[in-house]
Design brief:
The protein contains three helices and seven strands; from the N terminus they run βββαββββαα. With 149 residues, the protein is an alpha+beta fold. The strands form two sheets. It has a four-stranded antiparallel sheet. A three-stranded antiparallel sheet has the order 1-2-3. It starts with 7 loop residues before the first strand and ends with a helix.
Length: 149
């Protein structure tokens, strides 16, 4: 049995509605700067993790204006697949860039910790909105319950 690849997600300091993001795993690295328009992707990531923990597929769009990165979360049993694809303004087709298979500890926990760390950063409301506290509290409760199963 191969050990699931652990990921690392770093959410930087937002500035003027743009957020630097870095995603790393053993064999993949992605850096980009996402916009908070039309919706705030840190809130969407929180929602996606809640759905994934509950066994429901979800997707988040990181808008790069005009391109987008899509992170699709596909839970199956105890495993989770993340498909990372990109679309450009010239094409509606998404091009798969990377597929990662992991589990709660290797995917959900690092992303959750990244959101929690991000929620402690100090920044101006004009630069970015804080993660919705109700959503983050719900995610924290789910993660805490799941960690001790």
């Amino acid at each position: 049995m191969t050990k699931p690849t652990k990921i690392e997600l770093n959410l930087g300091n937002p500035k003027n509605g743009w957020l630097p993001i870095e995603l790393k795993s053993a064999d993949f690295e992605l850096e980009f700067i996402a916009s908070n328009i039309p919706e705030i992707p840190t809130d969407k990531l929180c929602e996606s993790l809640i759905l994934t923990i509950n066994g429901i597929e979800s997707e988040i769009c990181w808008n790069l204006e005009p391109e987008c990165y899509f992170f699709k979360f596909k839970p199956s049993g105890k495993g989770i697949d993340i498909l990372i694809s990109k679309s450009s303004e010239t094409s509606q087709n998404e091009i798969l860039e990377y597929k990662l298979t992991g589990n709660f500890k290797s995917i959900i926990l690092p992303m959750y910790r990244s959101l929690k760390k991000f929620s402690t950063l100090e920044f101006d409301k004009d630069d970015w909105n804080k993660i919705d506290k109700i959503k983050l509290d719900k995610l924290t409760k789910l993660v805490t319950t799941r960690k001790y199963e």
